[in-house]
TrEMBL record:
Source taxon at top rank: Bacteria
Lineage of the organism: Bacteria, Pseudomonadati, Bacteroidota, Flavobacteriia, Flavobacteriales
Protein name: DUF779 domain-containing protein
């Protein structure tokens, strides 16, 4: 069994479920921009164009989760937990009209977890 690189809280999974009902299939990309800080951004699937510079980390609540290759180098030793809090982010993420925003909580992997990490893939090579 693999150690997941990205997981989701129950509260965030409920918001994702509501967004999926309204928008159809979704995807996430961990932003590293200056305007929106470092926030997980939720888009309709395919709305954000991805290439070899983006890494697929896994799925949360049935949605693919990506980040840039450069940012992954910084985060590769941590498990990311997508959570949701009240407030408005400064982005184009789909949860904004709901009065909430997604955020990342992180922790370092243990040595045992590091040995069992889920593999990552360049976005075009992600598994089915």
């Amino acid at each position: 069994m693999h150690t997941e690189r990205v997981i989701v809280t129950e509260a965030a999974a409920e918001v994702i479920k509501a967004l999926r009902s309204a928008h159809g299939p979704l995807m996430f990309h961990q932003s590293g921009g200056c305007c929106d800080g470092s926030s997980p951004m939720c888009y309709a699937e395919g709305e954000l164009l991805l290439d070899d510079s983006d890494i697929w980390l896994g799925k949360i609540a049935g949605c693919d989760f990506y980040m840039s290759r450069d940012q992954f180098e910084y985060w590769k030793h941590t498990q990311l937990t997508v959570d949701v809090v009240p407030g408005r982010g400064s982005s184009f993420s789909l949860e904004i009209p709901l009065g909430v925003r997604f955020l990342i909580r992180s922790r370092l992997f243990s040595e045992a977890e590091s040995k069992a990490l889920q593999p990552v893939f360049a976005a075009p090579d992600k598994p089915g």
